[in-house]
Amino acid sequence: MSTLEIIGLRAGITGKEIVRGIDLSVSSGEVHAIMGPNGAGKSTLSGVLMGKPGYEVLAGSATLDGVDLLALPAWQRAQAGLHLVMQYPTEVPGVRVHDVLAEALAAGGRDTGGLDDRIRAEAARIGFDERFLDRALNVDLSGGEKKRNETLQLAVLEPKIAILDELDSGLDIDALRACARRVEDLSNERAMGVLVITHYSRLLAELRPDHVHILVKGRIVASGGPELADELEEVGYAAYTAGDEVEPPAARSALDDLFAL
Amino acid sequence: MPTTSPELLDQLASVSLPTADEEIWRYSRIGELDLTRYVPGSVVTTVDGPDDLVVAALDTAGLDERLTDAADVFAELNDAFMAPLTIRVPRHRVVEAPIVVTHVVAGGLDASGAAGVVFPRLVVEAGEASSVTVVERFVSGTPGPALVVPVLQVQAAQAARVEYLAADELGTDVWKIGHQRALGDRDSTTLLASVALGAAYGRVRTEARLVGQGGTTRQVAIYFAADEQMHDFRTIQDHDAPHTSSDLLFKGAVQDTARSVYTGLIRIREHARGTAAFQTNRTLTLSEGAWAESVPNLDIRTNDVSCSHASTVGPIDDDQRFYLESRGVPPEVAERLVVLGFFDEVIEQLPAGAVAAELRRAVADKLHVEAVAR
């Protein structure tokens, strides 16, 4: 049993606080969804947890089975069992998916025997064309192919906890379904804990969450079961942002507008 | 192939070197060169290729004078004191296996503290519709300083195909000042490739000139300088006939306090209408103390052309690094993957594909972890 424990996490970028106090616990086999409008801090949360450069942690903690994630460089967070499926997977010219998976497994002292077969089996399972396996990572791949590639890596690396950052952006319904099912299987069969970060409930029709949290302006304003996502679908985010404090106009900047609703 | 020592010593003492004030030597280390500190050196050249095509002599009878007039003082010295080798491929002859020429240069100082200077000359004359691949390797036989001043002359006749690779694996206290010229006739194809890992200061000036309609030339290079090394490339894509095309891709890396300079010119002459010319130079700076410069130039004298150039100098992309690290790849391994991946685009284009694995290993061996501690 593994647990990602986030307590009082506050973080931001260049002096602006974006994640403003988050408490969340994700355990093996659970699927949590964090839903929020643009600018709620969803991507900041995933970036901060994985250790993406450029973010600043202001307060709080994030641990995985007691290991202080925030004190570790990104690669050691991954080796501790955390994995981030990126919203916009980066193109890495000249580096094939086999290379990165072999190195990642080797660095963790894990078995790389039969890796090629595993990669091919995973590709077949999610409908990722084998031709793409010899291409450089994410280079000349469509949105759907990129997310299949991300899901393939997730399945081979078998993390304890996976964060899916907007898995549903930029891909067609077939790819969405294939990726969502694979994640659900990993959750059921391998007891992988999942934190799904999404704007729309579209993904949640394929990947049913046990818990839904609504993130507004860097804070979780409501938590509940899967019914919360359905409710949100009907009433929209406005219902959760209506009572929010309004900042005085003088304090607003172009940057604030960018992050505002 | 000994040179006539007294004459050479006189020449070395009297020659007037250019200075970095001249555009063609800008950014170079020419100011540090003192030819009086050199004496005739030793180079042993071996050839792996068909005996009937290779002679250890200079044979320029069939060469165009646009190829043979000396371009600068170093080419003049080479003219006077060269150790020559000529590869002549008769018309319609297709040479399947690469011809490999290896120059083993002796390094070190003599009793008076002088190092040796050598002048290898390679002529490749490819007859009509012939095809040949030549690999020229420069290696140090014994450690220590030396000066290598090679000249390459390539002539591709109508519809001939010449692929050439220069591999600089010289010791890191050797200086090399090289000059390459290629002349491509109608419908010919030339590839001039370079892999530079060695030398303290390694400079190569390459002029690829297309003098026949439908000619194509490509130049590719990999360079990787570490510690105090400096690599310096000067290229010219010279379009001297209509409907010709040229492409250039130079990719390099500098680490520690190493430096690199790339200066490239695309010249399209008045009558070279319907021409396409492309030039790309990218250099990774892997350490704070490393320095690289990229200077593209265009000299276009006709309107009917398709032309582009691109150049970048900078560190490894943070997003690429983070992407690999987020999968659990340690930083030094992520850096190795990114750098090797960066070079792969060029390695794939090198002639004599068999060298690829060896090259990747040589690049990987040269990379070190300190470079990522940022």
What keyword list fits this structure?
heterodimer, A: 261 residues, alpha/beta, Rossmann fold, six-stranded mixed β-sheet, four-stranded antiparallel β-sheet, 10 helices, 28% strand, disordered C terminus, B: 374 residues, twelve-stranded mixed β-sheet, nine-stranded mixed β-sheet
Quaternary structure type: heterodimer
Report mean pLDDT of chain A, rounded to a whole number. 90
Number of domains of chain A: 1
Total number of distinct structural domains of chain B:
1
- N- to C-terminal distance of chain B: 50 Å
Using DSSP, what is the number of strands of chain A? 12
Principal-axes geometry of chain B comes out as globular
Strand residue content of chain B: 35-45%
Q: Unreliable segments of chain A (pLDDT under 50, ≥5 consecutive)? A: 245-261
H/I helix tally of chain B: 6
Class from helix and strand fractions of chain B? alpha/beta
Q: Under CATH, the topology of chain A is which?
A: Rossmann fold
Uncertain residue segments of chain B: 369-374
Report on the architecture of this protein.
The complex is a heterodimer of chains A (261) and B (374). Chain A is of the alpha/beta class. Chain A has one domain (3-259): Rossmann fold. In chain A, 36% of the residues lie in helices and 28% in strands. Chain A is built from 10 helices and 12 strands. Chain A has helices at residues 42-50, 74-79, 97-107, 115-125, 143-157, 173-189, 202-206, 227-235, 238-241, 254-259, and strands spanning 3-13, 16-27, 31-35, 56-64, 67-68, 82-85, 92-96, 136-137, 161-165, 193-198, 211-216, 219-224. In chain A, the strands form 3 sheets. A 6-stranded mixed sheet of chain A has the order 6-9-10-3-11-12, with helices on both faces. In chain A, 44% of the residues are buried. Mean pLDDT of chain A is 90; it is low at 245-261. By secondary structure, chain B is α/β, with parallel strands linked by helices. Chain B has one domain (5-315). Chain B is built from 6 helices and 21 strands. In chain B, the strands form 2 sheets. In chain B, strands 1, 3, 4, 6, 7, 9, 10, 12, 14, 16, 18 and 20 form a 12-stranded mixed sheet that branches. A 9-stranded mixed sheet of chain B has the order 2-5-8-11-13-15-17-19-21, covered by helices on one side. The A-B interface holds A 50-53, 73-75, 77-79, 83-84, 86, 89-95, 99-101, 103-105, 107-108, 136-137, 153, 157 and B 317-320, 322-331, 333-334, 337-338, 340-345.
